[in-house]
Each structure stands twice: as C-alpha cells, then as structure tokens.
Design a protein that fits this description.
The complex is a heterodimer of chains A (90) and B (143). Chain A has 90 residues and is an alpha+beta fold. Chain A has 2 helices and 8 strands; from the N terminus they run ββααββββββ. Classes of the chains: A alpha+beta (90), B alpha/beta (143).
C-alpha cells in the first residue's frame, strides 16, 4: 500500500527536490518513519520528542491531523498526505 | 549594499499597507502569489491572523492548506509573505527568523508604528530569511 505525500519546498532537499513522494504505513507515524528511511533526516524536521512539531502541519485528505488522531491517525489506501510548515511569526 | 531585489507594483504595496491598517492593533498577514519561476508578485491574498495578536501572526491551518492547493492548481508560489508590525520596526523578529519556512519567498514587513490605523508614514522592507540568516533586499516599486 503506497501513499502519496506532498513535500513542502523547505523539505525538498531531503527528497532530491521531489514535490510528491510515496511512503507506506498503517498510521501517520509509521508513514513518517518510512519516509525517513527513504529520505533520511526528514523525520526529525517533522517530529520532535513530543510528537508532531508545533509549526509543522500535516493533513490527511485535507484534514489537519491535530483534529484527527494526530500521529496515530489511521492511513488507508488512496489517502493522501500533505505536509506544510506553518506560516507564522511575531 | 543590498544584493537581492523585490520588484513590486505600487498597487500591491498599497493593498498590504491598507491591510496592516485595517487589522491594527493586531498583526496583519498574507501572501502575494505569482507564477512559478517568475519571482513576480501578482495576486494579493490577505489571510486571517488566526492568533489575532499585536505581536504574533499565524495563518489558520485550514486556510493554509486551501491557499497552497489553490496556488498549486494555478502554478503559483508565494513570491511574497507579508506581515505587519503594528508597534515595532519593519525588521524580522526572533520569532520571524526561527519560523521562516519559505526559503524562496521575499519576507515583506510593514510597520505602521508611527500612525497606526490612520494614513501617514509607514516602513516597508523586504528580506530573505534562510536557515536563520536574514538578508535585506532592495525594493523597486513599479507603477
């Protein structure tokens, strides 16, 4: 089962510039771990010791995972995942 | 000497300043989208500051997704990401530097500290923010 993941500009150095990559796993956390196997380093840009980084948004089928089950969100065939850094500042 | 350059139409500058004044005393924020590869800001997209705060801004997460999907459909990128500083100088704050996430964007800051919501002088400056490093650039205003 392979899932499409959209990669934001700032993380494309980890994917050889690719905007769309594939990964697999039954949950969002597993997908991110799988992504990190193929694109080493990307995992720690998305996750920290507390889970999803505060200023990284991940959407499963256009729904912010913070309103789903976070990293435990179940991923099914044909789901699509989008990673977007927050646009924020002070 | 400033190395980079932002070329921007006067009408877009006016729109950003008007947005900053309208949202005073909170920070205003938004994007100028332009065609991929052009480095030319064309489309003014004011965003809601989801934290509604005089010292912070953040795009709402659903608005952010819609914005990026729409830009993708139109073969656009965020050429400019702007926000206002209602009470401080038009220079990136520490938070702005830490959270900057678009290495290809021009980060425009507008300060309306002198005049607040009313017409008058303002500061309008543009920066690149890459890997924690801030580089100011020149601005060329096109009529």
């Amino acid at each position: 089962m392979s899932i499409e993941v959209r990669i934001p500009t700032i993380l494309r150095p980890y994917t050889s510039g690719e905007k769309l990559v594939t990964a697999e796993g039954p949950t969002l956390e597993a997908v991110i771990k799988n992504l990190d196997v193929n694109h080493p380093g990307i995992g720690e840009r998305v996750l920290d010791e507390n889970g999803l980084r505060r200023f990284i948004n991940i959407y499963v089928n256009d729904e912010d995972v913070r309103f789903l089950d976070g990293l435990a969100t179940t991923i099914a065939e044909n789901d699509s995942i989008t990673i977007l850094p927050a646009v924020a500042g002070g | 000497m400033l190395i980079g350059m932002l070329e921007i139409q006067q009408s877009l500058v006016d729109s950003i300043v008007a947005h900053a004044r309208a949202d005073h005393p909170d920070e205003a924020c938004g994007v100028l989208a332009g065609p991929v590869g052009s480095d030319r800001p064309e489309r003014f997209i004011p965003m809601v500051n989801a934290v509604r705060c005089p010292t912070l801004y953040e795009f709402d997460s659903q608005d952010l997704l819609r914005l990026y999907l729409e830009m993708d459909d139109r073969d656009e990128i965020p050429v400019v990401i702007y926000h206002s500083h209602p009470a401080t100088q038009a220079y990136p704050s520490r938070t702005d530097i830490i959270q900057a996430s678009e290495p290809d964007a021009h980060y425009v800051l507008v300060s309306i500290r002198e005049t607040g919501p009313t017409d008058g002088p303002f500061e309008f400056r543009s920066f690149r923010i890459v890997d924690g490093e801030v580089t100011e650039e020149a601005i060329s205003i096109l009529e």
